[in-house]
Amino acid sequence: MNKTILITGGAGFIGSHVVREFVLKYPEYRIVNLDALTYAGNLENLKDIEHLHNYTFVKGDITDQHAVLAIFQEYQPDGIVHLAAESHVDRSIVDPMAFVMTNVIGTVNLLNAARIIWKDNFEGKRFHHVSTDEVFGALGNEGYFTEETKYDPHSPYSASKASSDHFVRAYHDTYGLPIVLTNCSNNYGPNHFPEKLIPLCIHNILNNKALPVYGDGKYTRDWLYVIDHAKAIDLVFHEGKNGDSYNVGGFNEWQNIDLIKELCKQMDEKLDRAKGSSAQLITFVKDRPGHDLRYAIDATKINKELGWKPSVTFEEGLSLTIDWFLSNQEWLEHVTSGDYKKYYDNQYKDA
Ligand code: NAD
Ligand code: DAU
């Protein structure tokens, strides 16, 4: 095998799609998936590829600097694709320190380990940091986030991701570490953990439970099918310009309430339920504190420079996503048993 690529957080939602993309597309690479298997990490996400010769799983916590260095020394990765993170905004409001630990300290541990094993000889090496559009803050009704937009994070989650982005750039500017960053909008698709809006609503419709809409439901997000994000990461990792960041988005803005209505419509059709029955579950609940009004990505740079664009429309992607959840209800049962119930009952007391 000609290269070792270490992917962190590869048992999570997006990470598992990135691992699959790399393992299948590059049989000549050894892909090492480093993941702590928190509540969000699930090896069931990788069942179809775990037997392949170029795939290795390593259980490890990126907040543990000694463990991280030992793993880097053992596997000697040529490239890092860093996705491991605490990723849910609502959880960051309850427990910000977990986000500082994994998203900030964990990222710095990886940067240090990369410097140490590469001995500041960076030929053929690359550190790809996967980040979010939330670092840019909130837009009004107009405008887009570009790569030049100033950082203005509001939630503990986005503040921790912004901090990690700054550390990655600082290691490039200070030590010459070869880096690329991607800042992506909201993903959806297979394996999405049901604490997030779309899979939470799919799960609740299946169980005839309330669909909790924060505030007036007019908050706006740009949604991208997860496999399109994985392909963008592959492209930027291999072809992105050293030191640059790339915005990745779906050109696909939805107000939450309209998105939920579209989801209800598709669910009614697929479940053969009376038209309008799922929408009756919509329940307006207390708003998220510090809720960002609107995110919208200008993905012109990655489109013009690297030729990337989304491959499916939102309606197609949503249909594929619902079909996946309907065919994988055992997966949904597994991830919503145990601790998820405690989290759900606490978060949605008034739903
Ligand atoms: P996720 O919560 O589904 O998965 C996170 C993964 O990281 C899990 O497998 C978990 O076990 C692992 N992990 C957590 N803490 C760890 C630690 N201390 N050590 C090792 N592994 C640990 O997250 P996701 O939605 O797949 O997001 C992946 C990355 O993409 C994150 O960095 C996130 O900020 C970024 N991102 C997510 C979205 C989105 O819409 N979900 C959009 C843009 C960017
Ligand atoms: O923009 C990229 C980000 O998208 C990623 O960096 C994050 O990791 C990811 O979690 C996601 O953050 P959001 O906060 O936008 O996603 P979430 O699915 O939690 O919420 C989407 C919108 O729906 C948001 O406006 C809040 C709202 N919402 C969410 C939940 C969970 C509700 O109205 N009700 C809910 O129960």
UniProtKB/TrEMBL annotation:
Keywords: Lyase, NAD. The keyword NAD applies. Its cofactor is NAD(+). InterPro entries: dTDP_Gluc_deHydtase, NAD(P)-bd_dom, NAD(P)-bd_dom_sf. The keyword Nuclease does not apply. Residues 6-319 form the NAD(P)-binding domain. It catalyses: dTDP-alpha-D-glucose = dTDP-4-dehydro-6-deoxy-alpha-D-glucose + H2O. Pfam families: GDP_Man_Dehyd. Its EC number is 4.2.1.46. One of its GO terms (biological process) is nucleotide-sugar metabolic process. SUPFAM superfamilies: NAD(P)-binding Rossmann-fold domains. Belongs to the NAD(P)-dependent epimerase/dehydratase family. dTDP-glucose dehydratase subfamily. This is dTDP-glucose 4,6-dehydratase. It comes from Sphingobacterium paramultivorum. The gene is rfbB.
